[in-house]
Every structure is written in structure tokens, then in C-alpha cells.
Write a structure and sequence with these properties.
CATH topology of the largest domain: D-Maltodextrin-Binding Protein, domain 2
Shape: globular
Number of domains: 2
Helix content: 25-40%
Number of helices: 11
CATH superfamily of the largest domain: Periplasmic binding protein-like II
CATH architecture of the largest domain: 3-Layer(aba) Sandwich
CATH class of the largest domain: Alpha Beta
Largest sheet: 10 strands, mixed
Order of helices and strands: HEHEHEHEEHEHEHEHEEHHH
Strand content: 15-25%
Structural class: alpha/beta
Distance between the termini: 62 Å
Length: 317
């Protein structure tokens, strides 16, 4: 064989090797949320970290209907990874509505991320001050069946308000803000990391205010609900919000489908916490994702791969 043919043969073998290596990559899908919320940019940043720092694993972040939709897709093994509220994930695993017929028993936690804050947004001149004032009003409670809607309903009921007492509107964050701008609703409930882009948008074009929860009522309500907590929205986080606002929050949880290998999830968890600077640079909520709070409100069973990492770094014994 002459040198030219030999070189050509080596080139074909090399190309086949590259193609084989590419096809061997483990391709995973990460369910996030709507583009107006926080799940999508955070999920996209997590996918980027994994793609960059975990050889052989490729993750695609998908925009979805958020927590409830993500849990249903994970249950049906349509996605491999997901973001979801701690309370909604807990409800899915334990078979609470809307999962009473099909619990999500194949969800496994990787990490608690940042607090998702429930923001009750109204117009400043509306005269509305507290949750109680929503009786008889048009209220955007979140997309139908979403984690926001589920928690919004819980908080309203804690204050003695059911859907019989309000005119509920099932709207996503962006739709709710548009409806508020057009004076079609009285209050938009947004459950997301702050600042939320949809609320930032609202505050730049409207004079907004936020309703407070009843502290004593919520303390009693949250006593047996460790996946929710009282939270103060800082003054100045949005234009026109010049004092702290008391509300509730639920941590966002990064989870995996149970059949993902221990080694893959270990590498994903390790990459995530070794490159938190990249998360912080990608979104303001990235600054609130810390190793020391990774298990602070874990409401579903931990994935063995994540458990291995936390034992390695001393977070678990």
C-alpha cells in the first residue's frame, strides 16, 4: 500500500472514531419553565455548565409549563432532568392533587436551588393592601395546574379565600402582567425567583404595589409544611417597591429521573457546585444557589449520585 492510500485509510479511521465518540454522548433533556420566569434562564445556565464540564453528557434545556408539567413529563420518562418547586415536587411524589391517580415516584432530588417567591402584584392606586382584599376581585393565579397555581390556591385558602370568593384567571406570568397592564385583572400572582423578568417589565411601565400575607395565619399554616417558608421581598427589588413585603417562598429543586446512573448524576452535581460562579454570572438568582443550602428543603428522595457527592464534600455523613 502506497503512502497516499495509507494516509487516506488513517483519515477514514480517525473520522469514524470521532463520529463514534459523538454518537456515544449521553443526551439528556432538562425541563425548565416559561421564558418569562426564572426556571428557563437558570435551567439553560445549568445545561451550559454540564455541557462544558461533564465530558460525554449533553443536556438540552427545554421551555415548558414549569413544575406540574415537568413532573408529569418526568413521571412518563419524557425528560431526564427537571426544575420544580419544592412543595409541588413533594405533592407529586406523595400523590397529592393533581397527582392523586399517578404519583411521581421516579423523581430523585439533586439540589435545592433558590427561593421561589410568591408575589401578589397589584396597581398602586388599586386600594388593595392585603390578601384579604382580593375577595370579589379578578386574580391571575398562574397557569392551570401549575406549581404557582397550586401554591397560590393554598395561600388564598389559608386566608379564608377559595375560588368561589374570587374570579380566578388561569394565566402564565407574561399573560398576567399584560392583563394587569390592560386593567383586565386586579392582581397577578407570580411564583418565581426575584427579580422576575415579567414583574420587572410591569414595574417599568406601571406603578405597582405588592400585597402582604397575614404573618400569624401563615405561621400556623406553615407549621406542618416544611417545603414553604415566610419570606420578605426586599425593598427596592422592583421600581416602586420601597419597603419590605412579607410573603411566602418555596425553594426550587433540581431533580432527576430515578433511572439516571449514579455516576452521571454525581458528575452533574459536582460540576454544578464547582462552577457556581458561572450560574451567578448567568442570572441574579444564581447568587442564591449555595452548597450549604443544597439540602435545606429537599422534599423528595435524594438521587444516589447526588448523595455520593454530598458525602464526599461533608454535607452528609
Amino acid at each position: 500500500m502506497n503512502l497516499r492510500k495509507l494516509a487516506a485509510l488513517f483519515l477514514v479511521v480517525a473520522l469514524l472514531g470521532v463520529t463514534g465518540a459523538a454518537s456515544a454522548a449521553e443526551r439528556l433533556s432538562l425541563a425548565t419553565g416559561g421564558t418569562a420566569g426564572t426556571y428557563y434562564p437558570i435551567g439553560s445556565a445549568i445545561a451550559s455548565i454540564i455541557n462544558k464540564h461533564v465530558p460525554g453528557v449533553e443536556v438540552t434545556a427545554e421551555s415548558t409549563g414549569a413544575s406540574v408539567a415537568n413532573l408529569k413529563m418526568l413521571r412518563n420518562k419524557q425528560v431526564d432532568l427537571m426544575l420544580g418547586a419544592a412543595n409541588t415536587s413533594w405533592g407529586g411524589y406523595n400523590g397529592l392533587p393533581p397527582f392523586e391517580k399517578k404519583p411521581v415516584k421516579n423523581i430523585r432530588g439533586i439540589a435545592c436551588l433558590y427561593p421561589e417567591t410568591f408575589q401578589f402584584i397589584v396597581l398602586k392606586n388599586s386600594g388593595l393592601k392585603t390578601i384579604y382584599d382580593l375577595k370579589g376581585k379578578k386574580v391571575a393565579v398562574g397557569a392551570a395546574g401549575s406549581g404557582t397555581e397550586r401554591t397560590a390556591k393554598m395561600v388564598l385558602e389559608a386566608h379564608g379565600l377559595t375560588y368561589k370568593d374570587i374570579d380566578e384567571q388561569f394565566l402564565k406570568f407574561g399573560e398576567a402582567v399584560t392583563a394587569l397592564k390592560d386593567r383586565l385583572i386586579d392582581c397577578a400572582i407570580v411564583g418565581s425567583g426575584i427579580p422576575t423578568s415579567a414583574v420587572v417589565d410591569a414595574s417599568t411601565t406601571l406603578d405597582i404595589a405588592m400585597l402582604e400575607v397575614d404573618e400569624q395565619v401563615m405561621k400556623e399554616f406553615l407549621a406542618d409544611r416544611p417545603y414553604l417558608m415566610l419570606y420578605k421581598i426586599p425593598a427596592g427589588v422592583y421600581r416602586g417597591i420601597d419597603k419590605e413585603v412579607l410573603t411566602v417562598a418555596s425553594p426550587a429543586i433540581f431533580s432527576a429521573e430515578a433511572s439516571l446512573s449514579e455516576e452521571t448524576v454525581y458528575k452533574i452535581t459536582k460540576a454544578l457546585f464547582e462552577h457556581l460562579d458561572e450560574l451567578a454570572a448567568a442570572h441574579v438568582q444564581g447568587k442564591n444557589i449555595k452548597l450549604e443550602t443544597a439540602l435545606s428543603a429537599m422534599s423528595v428522595p435524594l438521587h444516589p449520585g447526588a448523595e455520593k457527592y454530598y458525602k464526599e464534600v461533608g454535607l452528609l455523613k
